[in-house]
Amino acid sequence: MAQKPTIPKGTRDFIPLEATRRNYIFDTIKRIFTLYGYAPIETPAMENLSTLLGKYGDEGDKLLFKILNSGDFLSGTDPAALSQMGSGSAALKICEKGLRYDLTVPFARFVVQRQNELVFPFKRYQLQPVWRADRPQKGRYREFYQCDVDVIGSDSLLYELELLQIVDDVFNAFGIKVCMYVNHRKVLSGIAEMIGRPDMLTAITIAMDKFDKVGIEAVESEFLERGLESEAVEKLRPILTFTGNTEEKIALIEQHLSETETGMTGVAELKTLFGLFSQVGMTQQITLDLSLARGLSYYTGAIFEVKALDFEMGSICGGGRYDNLTGVFGLPGMSGVGISFGADRIYDVLLGLDKFPSTTNEAPKVLFMNLGKEESTFALSCLKQLRASGIPSELYPDHTKMKKQFDYADKRGIPFVAIIGEEELRQGVVALKNLATGAQQSCSPTDIESILKG
Amino acid sequence: MAQKPTIPKGTRDFIPLEATRRNYIFDTIKRIFTLYGYAPIETPAMENLSTLLGKYGDEGDKLLFKILNSGDFLSGTDPAALSQMGSGSAALKICEKGLRYDLTVPFARFVVQRQNELVFPFKRYQLQPVWRADRPQKGRYREFYQCDVDVIGSDSLLYELELLQIVDDVFNAFGIKVCMYVNHRKVLSGIAEMIGRPDMLTAITIAMDKFDKVGIEAVESEFLERGLESEAVEKLRPILTFTGNTEEKIALIEQHLSETETGMTGVAELKTLFGLFSQVGMTQQITLDLSLARGLSYYTGAIFEVKALDFEMGSICGGGRYDNLTGVFGLPGMSGVGISFGADRIYDVLLGLDKFPSTTNEAPKVLFMNLGKEESTFALSCLKQLRASGIPSELYPDHTKMKKQFDYADKRGIPFVAIIGEEELRQGVVALKNLATGAQQSCSPTDIESILKG
Fold first, then answer.
1. Mean pLDDT of A361-375
2. Lesser CB count within 10 Å: N end or C end of chain B?
């Protein structure tokens, strides 16, 4: 093979520094999920296509990666018929499995399948990759991790609070300033009802979702194009463009939606929620954003989205309440609420703001130079002690030129080298050199430990 | 959908307790890899089929999960021709990607592709799932994790030592007693040479690999069947059946292999290695096992296998040195050595020996009962403090019957419940109940922290 090997487009390798930084993100998120009583689950990469199909719309069905049936996949199929039915249907004749497209559908499938083993309300988190046959582009990959946390089997608003406390804690831990945007699907429904077009809810929410990006005029002309009466558009304007604080906004919609039962339910929940937020005291900004819609059709209650304040980036976290996620698998009436963290985007924000802790380093703390057999024997005994104390450390594998060994330490970003030469060997000490400052000191094996831990 | 949904055969879901226990295994292994200066990498689940094919033998090629090309996969193919060429070749017309089959080939591909970004010797670990279209059976899955640690770009025996120290530390951490079996491919080659049949090396190693299971007579008759002269079989017998300790075994092969250069190289390396093992002092048993062969054809130096001593289970860890893993991708002459931990089998051993730490529990430490709105407000402030101190804890979401709330705590295995009733609210205290002992005490929010941490 003359050419260098490659990987499929839209997929990525992670070198040690990247993998270490990603692990820092995952570990931080997991630690905080655990603090709130959420427990991990895992589901297989492959699901039956019958589980996945029809859950993500026609476009989603096309973006599923399908796995060719193993063995003689053509047996029992008529190749001529295959070609006549077209690739879409033909795929289903020769593929029974697909790669998971998100963590939500596998979670719903899991809850239904394992319902008798689970304790409800069921609080779970799941950090696993998903795959989509999307056209790859900057920041969009065919394999990427989702970090989902959900609770299912309760409609208590205390869970909305809990999840936003988690968001608060996670971004505090990362040192990223964010704003959490909150809205409510029932308020959006109430608005559609209030303007006399409940049938247009989806169109309205889609258009509202764009308000942030395109402004009021573009949204209004889209409304008109979609067949909304200009009267209705005018009724919408004060709500869309109102710029007061959260309390004032709630007062505004309470006044406008007083005639719609659904809308008032949403308003009441928002009131309770924002009351809880100020009761527990959130560190990060949190605000009601009536233009927040989120495209996913399964949301039925509060919806959330999080954006970084000091860095230009889309939503880095989002979610909401759903009432019937598991209904499609035969278990109706399970209300739940969940949030998903976008690990790739959080990575880019941390990198852009230089917020990865300096300890997020793939390198060990110290490299013992290899100056010969006896010297290495002493080094090995020091290493044993250091590792027992939890200090990542290693010995250069060959007795070779010092320069080569220093180069290795330097390239890997190892902060200290430990030198054991003839003299050190005789005295039972180690010369410890700080590669950043150049300072060198003679110390006992036990001293090294306290220096490196300090 | 009337029927409960299912997952593809040979795949698994992991419920919280299982996922938590698996994370304990992964975290322990990762922690120890890091102590020895190994850093994580990740590779994509999908590789180009050109990377995977031909690396695992014909049987392996058949067991690759292939991904149907997305979009119009039939375009440019002639369906009639597809059916004529048979499923094996037809698959390659409509699939360009496959799921990784192990971590070794992706690792080799990665090293070649990223060689200019890596520091050699390159020490990496990788914990990711792999997929094989094997017939599922007890303990054999179509999706399972591999936990590989390798160093590539050095032939220093200090790395063999380092990896076996890692094995020692890992099983010490798990509290599993093991024996590490060591052999050397060059010793096996020397033996084949010594009996005058270097051409039969593979047959001999395969037969030797079975010695453990079937005994000397079966192995010898297999040798004869495979065309080995009875003279050669007799020459083999003393080596196969010798039962002395490692020192005596090395002396025995040194004597028998003195005429073969390859064999003596192997003997010399084993001597050095066992010298190093006793120098650093291994905790677990470690022994030379001349019948250890390991089937993988890429090993060229020392080979390892690890078995639990107190639990019936096959090999739970294994590996060895290879000289040309990256040659097939255009980078020859890179010697490396690696070890792979079998997470699923380690899970079964830990479970069988009841060695999972009691802290490996998915549940939070304490559940605050929900006795009303004001009570919950107080609970939320206690929870905030507990979580800030790193104590997993939660509030029951609804003001409902005590029994229901106790049941929830009980089923989830939450060890403590915190009760805040009217009286506690007035005094600013919490009644903390240990569910195992039934003991209940009144304490301040700060007391809870020290009790739960203790």
1. 94
2. C
- Phi, psi dihedral angles at B125 (to 5 degrees): -125, 160
Mean of the per-residue pLDDT values of chain A: 93
- C-alpha B332/C-alpha B141 separation (Å) is 34
| Cross-chain Cβ contact B110/A13 below 8 Å | yes
Between positions 136 and 175 of A, the ones with CB within 8 A of B are 142-143, 154, 156, 158-159, 161-162, 165, 169
Going across the sheet that includes A393-395, the strands are: A393-395, A366-368, A416-419, A430-434, A440-443
What are the structure tokens assigned to B225, written together?
């069947």
CA atoms of A38 and B397, how far apart (whole Å): 14
Q: What angle do CA A344, A350, A352 make, to 5 degrees?
A: 100
B6 has a chain A CB within 8 A of its CB: yes
Q: DSSP letters of B437-449?
A: T--EEEE-HHHHH
Contact (CB, 8 A) for A270 and A184: yes
Question: What's the CA angle centered on A311, arms A307 and A313, to 5 degrees?
Answer: 55
**What beta strand segments (E) does A234-374 contain?**
285-288, 299-308, 317-322, 336-341, 366-368
- pTM of this prediction exceeds 0.90: yes
| Residue B245 tokens, joined | 């300790």
Which H or E run includes B178? strand B178-184
Q: Give the Cα separation of B225 and B223 in Å (integer).
A: 5
Model confidence pLDDT, tens digit, residues B262-271: 999 999 999 9
CA atoms within 13 Å, Cβ hemisphere of A128: 25
Question: Which own/partner pairs from B315-323 qualify as long-range (CB within 8 Å, at least 24 positions apart)?
Answer: B315/B342, B315/B345, B316/B178, B316/B341, B316/B342, B316/B345, B316/B346, B316/B349, B317/B167, B317/B170, B317/B178, B317/B341, B317/B342, B317/B346, B318/B294, B319/B163, B320/B185, B320/B294, B320/B296, B321/B155, B321/B160, B321/B185, B322/B298, B323/B155
Measured distance CA(A370)–CA(A405) in Å, rounded:
8
Contact A333, A324 (CB under 8 A): yes
> Which pair of structure tokens corresponds to residue A31?
């630690």
Residue B300 in tokens: 């060229």
Tens of pLDDT, residues A92-136: 999 999 999 999 999 999 999 999 999 999 999 999 999 999 998
- Interface contact flag, B5 A109, Cβ < 8 Å: yes
B window 317-346, beta carbon within 8 A of A: 328-330
List, in sequence order, every beta strand (DSSP E) within B46-134: 46-48, 66-68, 95-99, 122-131
